[in-house]
Design brief:
The structure is a single chain. It is globular and about 65 Å long. The longest helix has 34 residues. The protein is built from 15 helices and no strands. By secondary structure, it is mainly α.
Amino acid sequence: MNALSHPAAKQRYALTDPFWVRWGLITTALLFIAMFLCLPLGIVLIEAFSKGWQAYNAALMQPDTLSALRLTMLTAAVTVPLNTVFGVAAAWAITRFEFPGKSLLTTLIDLPFSVSPVISGLIFVLMFGAQGWFGEWLIAHDIKIIFAVPGIILATLFITFPFVARELIPLMQEMGSEEEEAALSLGATGWQMFSQITLPNIKWALLYGVLLCNARAMGEFGAVSVVSGHIRGLTNTLPLHVEVSYNEYDFVAAFASASILAGLAIVTLILKSLLEWKQGKH
C-alpha cells in the first residue's frame, strides 16, 4: 500500500512544504535581515571606528555629545515612569469599568500611532510657541516650553504614551476580574488586591511595555526635532546630535553617537526576547 494512502500521512504531507520552498523562504529571510539589519549596523560600527579607538572615544567625550546623552537619559527618566502610571491606570479603567467615553479613551490612546511625529511636534509649537494659543501667557510669566527641555519631554510623552497601555489592555481583558473580586470578597484592600493579584499577573507585559516605551523615548527624532530648536548643548538629544554632526561632516562623531543608539537597540531586542519568553512561559 502506498504510504500516502493513509489519512494521517496525507495530512502530514499536505502540511509539509517541499524542501526547496522551505529553504527558499529561509534564505530570503536571512538575506533580508543581512541587508536591512546587519549591514547598516556594521556600517555604523565601521565608520565609528574608522579613525581608531582614540578618535571614537574623543568623539564620545565631546561636551555636546555628553550633553545630548544626558538630555536623552533625562527625557526617558521622566517620560517612562509617567507613561507607566498612565498605562496601568488606563488599562485598569478600560478593562474593569464601564463609563461614558470609554470608546473615545481607547481611540485617543491609539492617536500617537496614527499621527506623524512631526505633526505631533507642530501641535505643541502651535500651543506653546511664541505665536501659539498660550504663547503670550507663557512669555508674560517667563515660562519657556518650546525650544527648551519641557517641550522635548512633552513631545516625547505624547509619542510614547500608548506603549504600556496597549500591552496591558488585551492581557487584562483576557484575565478577567474573577480573582480580584474573590480577593476583595475575602477582605483584601484595593492595594493588596493590586499588589498581590493583579501585578503578578501583568508584570511581564508591564515590563515589556516599559521596555518599548523606553526604547522609543530614547530614539524619538521627528517630534523632538520640531520642538527642540537644535540648540547645541541644551536641546539636542542623541538622535538630533547625530544629524547635526553628520550635516557638519563630522562623521566620526555622528557614527560614534549612532553606535550608542545602536547598542541600546541591541540591548532592547535582547531584553524584548527575554521578556517575550518569560511572558510565554508564564
